[in-house]
Amino acid sequence: MNILICSLLASLICSASPFSQNGGQLRTYEIQTDSERVDLYECETETVKINPVKGRFQLLYLFVRFNKLKAIPDNVCALPRLRELVLNDNEITTVQMSDLNCLTNLEVIALHRNRIVTVDAWQSVRLPKLRDLYLDQNQLSEFSFAGWNVPALRRVHLFDNNLKVVEAVSTALPSLKTLRIYDNPLNCFWVKAVTSKLHARNIRDIGNMDCEQGSTFEAVEHMAEMAEERKERQKLTENSQLELLVRLLQQQNELLTKKLQKLEEQKENSNNSYFK
């Protein structure tokens, strides 16, 4: 009995084994199903592989910092237990936020000090447990929380980007406590309109939001342009998805046609051999 207990304990310890590498060269790393924590620091990592076929992943924490990732890893939805996605100081340029909706346990997204130009969403962002969002020190020229469903989000860092306005920041985040948005070329009329609302909610760390002179019309026009561009991108995404679905149906139809032809040939050959 003692041997059995020891064996079970040993298997549990192994199944929760973390993987960590600091320095060196590890251009490609494949996450193992039994790892609960992966930490790659300054390893020149370009690719993190996640193979959904391998089974159920136990990963809770994925840290890939100061590396060379160009995008959030593919197949990240195969990590249903993931709590923290920390990919700061890489070379990521685009983030499709709604692709992370599958990570319902996600609490932290840290993407600061990348090269992010666009944070987009082809459908509503729904991350029920998201608590902290770090997108500071990137190259964002626009950002919107419109359509986001993130009831637990408390901390948002957007400082040191190229933002003029941040749509819905004062209305879409019911649990917001800390907002860092300084060091952006913010529109003064937008700042004046939003600051009073944020102060009324006791939002902390807003800091000195220096702004650039501009008219109310310019601020409204910019938000309208953002909304229009968002609709256009959503339309393009929907069209591309429809095109992909059509191609898949065509491929399935071709396979089915070939199978039917083969069955017809087999039937004909069978009939011919019967009459011989």
Describe this structure in words.
The protein is an alpha/beta fold and 276 residues long. The protein is built from 3 helices and 16 strands. The strands form 5 sheets. Strands 1-3-5-6-8-10-12-14 form an 8-stranded parallel beta sheet, with no helix packed on it. The protein has a two-stranded parallel sheet with strand order 2-4. The longest helix is centred in the C-terminal third of the chain and has 60 residues.
Short description:
The protein is an alpha/beta fold and 276 residues long. It contains three helices and 16 strands.
- % residues in beta strands: 15-25%
| Overall morphology | elongated
Instruction: Give the structural class.
Output: alpha/beta
Q: Bin the helical content.
A: 25-40%
Main sheet specs: 8 strands, parallel
> What do the pLDDT scores average to?
83
Radius of gyration: 25 Å
- Amino- and carboxy-terminal Cα gap: 70 Å
Strand segment count: 16
Oligomer: single chain
Low-confidence stretches: 1-15
Number of helices: 3
- Which strand order does the major sheet show? 1-3-5-6-8-10-12-14
